[in-house]
Design brief:
309 residues, alpha/beta, four-stranded antiparallel beta sheet, 26% helix, 25% strand
Amino acid sequence: MGRSSRADRSADRGRTAAEPQPAATGPGGRTHAQGPLTRPVGSGLAELRPDRDRPAAWSLLVDGAPQSMVDLADPTYLGFEYQRRLGHLIDLVAPPGRPLTVLHLGGGALTLARYVAATRPRSRQQVAEIDTALTELVRTELPLERGWQIKVRGSDARSVLERTPEGTVDLVIADVFSGARVPAHCTTVEFTTLAAKALAPGGWYAVNIADGSALPFARSQIATLGAVFPELCLVADPAVLRGKRFGNLILAAAHAPLPLAELGRKVASDAALGRVEHGRALADFAAGAAPATDATAAPSPAPPPGAFS
């Protein structure tokens, strides 16, 4: 689930990788001349909405909540600020261009899988997306390019994680939303432990969540990841961190130090304001929060009315 604004989406600054923009050829798929498309899927009412600025770009919404943005002509374009912040982590987890093994928990329009395939050719990717009707819609209307090694499994994110062999994944990205909320069973210490076991040496775990006001869910998630990983940072809009608006927060965790200086530079260069919190400041931010467990977890809060207007 994400939020976008016109300022976020300038053609030059909406990109996270330092690569030239490809020509607008793309693999085919739905055109703007066909107009928007609305279709029931397993998780609600899906809408593909043409972007006003980019002639091959589409936003995916489910029950009115923005989920993903895809530019069929340019898979390196990341239109939502949360996607760009996850894109920064994809850029930094390994030297540029090196193929990765990536597990995406939550698929949506497969935006980040497309980004990995375009910026790190020959990467092997698996996507867990429980909504098979949504996946079919995306594959039909916003098709993947031939040759990309992206396998989508129509299963619950946690069940896929449980079946992932230990030590085999360079990057696990958890972007799991049921509508506009993160399901409780994907927010726990037990879930995070499964992600940690899946990681190869040097691998990272990245999580997209959403919260607002006093940020109790975000604080609990910091405590949850901190119970499993020794290294942790958070990236978010300062207004979200101050509780001024509901929005996305990105958490990154690892067993070895994260490249905080490089991440900070990438976040600072983005059109959308962002801040990286880590170390003592992050610990103080989450002070008093308890880790979520399978016995105590609750879904993330529902967005307030007007959060996506």
